[in-house]
């Protein structure tokens, strides 16, 4: 058990004055590498959106390499800080197999000094999010995560560090999109009747801007010389009005902003704040493709660069990572299938992510897995399956498939369920998922891939779906629907028949979407549950893969070998990267 001297006794022993004591409340105990009283350049190493990609091979970056990079500054007596801008415990099997515990252990060993929460830090539930904060040896900060029962912030808004003869403050900011890009139910009471937590945002962004400005002002009051935003906001237009650029433009006082969330490679962009001052905005991309290096010169000038490789490694951190990687690979390494097909979430022509705005063969495959599980394994009459694009995480190259492959595709640990819903609810869900699709459209993790159904999206028709300030569905489209010609596959006739808005259908999907308001899908609230908690997402997919016809006892993934190939007239075309044509964008 760790034993800490109390803050009061520490201050008493050190003879700190009352005025200095007030500052100490926002100043953590110094870790090796950043505490220095003389004027000197300060280095801040930063990561964002690592998403548990810990199995890189040298010279690519790893936590062991970053630990050694930091230690190199320490050994030279140079002030250095190591920070993270969120989304570090979820993404691959290396995170989900122990709910992020080993990732936090690696970050502790690497010597992280501070972090903020990304939306995916909430993916294992609110209790686990709070447990992770306690397990970390470094503090988390967030100025806009609030407990509505008390009206107080859950975490400190700001932390100060003495380094290079300066006080450097970090203001933590969490994206308000956490409600819909994690699971809204986690922010509610047990009965899911009301929110008990809020991540301040506001329809126009004012709640977020005001929370950030208050934190900046607090940092100034505490004596900060340099103020840095440590945010998980991103720059995607779909995140407006909560992007990092908008936060900077509507506040004053930042000197720099280390960002995450949008997976953008941004070495240094100058964004002007509300007073016309240029603020350095930077982001490393994702998956440890880069580590950022910010240098604060003796005169306060700030420069940044992104480093993509390193030939150094901390042996202890490397050993921890290797042991866990070996354990997970052993647990999930059994081959379950093989294929000559490349499965995509990204557009193979452009390299841009497509899964959140258009059909792909992997989107079809995952939805088909859910559909097949309920029809063939559970022997229940499933009419249609839906799968949100945000729950499908990686391309898969042709070759061997293992349980780990499926876990990498769907790492969230969501559970499949079957519900009785009306045709109107299906129409509302498809309309809600398609509200951003278009030539200038935005990504949407709630874009719906389907099995046992087809539909059209008419992008010339404006979106009129009603949503609240958290982008949760509130009501049907008030104008002409963008989604039209929805058809449901009839297993008896082998034809796709028009959706009957008044009829009841058996809809399958993940509880994230159908039961927990994930991505804002609230139209299913109160629907009759037929069966819940049948199997975890990656196991549903693994089961489907193992149902394919085999060669030499190894299932071969192809359209012709799918168990659904025996369904007359069922649309299958895994060989086409863009899927079987179930979703037509017109």
What attributes does this structure have?
25% helix; globular; 24% strand; disordered N terminus; 30 strands; 586 residues; alpha/beta; six-stranded mixed beta sheet
Question: Can you describe this structure?
Answer:
One of its GO terms (molecular function) is hydrolase activity. InterPro entries: 5'-Nucleotdase_C, 5'-Nucleotdase_C_sf, 5'-Nucleotdase_CS, 5_nucleotidase/apyrase, Calcineurin-like_PHP, Metallo-depent_PP-like, TAT_signal, TAT_signal_bac_arc. Pfam families: 5_nucleotid_C, Metallophos, TAT_signal. By secondary structure, the chain is an alpha/beta fold. Helix content is 25%, strand content 24%. The strands form 8 sheets. It has a 6-stranded mixed β-sheet, covered by helices on one side. Strand 12 and strand 13 form a beta hairpin. The chain is globular, with a radius of gyration of 25 Å. The N terminus is likely disordered.
Name the structural class.
Answer: alpha/beta
Question: What are the segments in which pLDDT stays under 50 over at least 5 consecutive residues?
Answer: 1-25, 27-32
- What is the CA-atom radius of gyration, in angstroms? 25 Å
Report the portion of residues in β strands: 15-25%
How many beta-strand elements? Answer: 30
Largest sheet features: 6 strands, mixed
N- to C-terminal distance: 62 Å
* Secondary structure tally, helices: 15
The overall pLDDT, averaged over residues, is: 92
Strand order of the largest sheet: 4-3-2-1-14-15
Query: In percent, how helical is the residue content?
Result: 10-25%
Give the overall shape, derived from the CA principal axes.
Answer: globular
